[in-house]
Amino acid sequence: MDVGGIVATLVIGLVAGLVARAVVPGKQDLGILATLALGLVGSVVGNLVAGLVRDGEVQFDLGGWWASILGAVLVLALYVSVAGRRR
């Protein structure tokens, strides 16, 4: 992966994390780096699930905007529900 691909991956992860934080209700104690990590993890999760649904096989991909955002929303909702139980 070249520098442009790394930058594009980081931008997709950050945007997916920011959109997920705007959509999911509840208290979210996340800084900018945690939001970026959330977006990157959500991107991987969303694209793995999309690959399973679309092709029936697991594919590691960091591409697709919609799958990245949906995965980030799923991961953040899970985080908020687990963190909310601890309080």
From TrEMBL:
Classification via InterPro entries: Transgly_assoc (IPR007341)
Source taxon at top rank: Bacteria
Segments crossing the lipid bilayer: 6-24, 31-53, 65-84
Alphabetic keyword roster: Cell membrane, Membrane, Transmembrane, Transmembrane helix
Membrane topology value: Multi-pass membrane protein
Keyword Transmembrane helix: yes
PANTHER family per UniProt: UPF0410 PROTEIN YMGE
Family statement drawn from the similarity comment of this UniProt entry: Belongs to the UPF0410 family.
Descriptive protein name: Uncharacterized membrane protein YeaQ/YmgE, transglycosylase-associated protein family
Organism of origin: Blastococcus tunisiensis
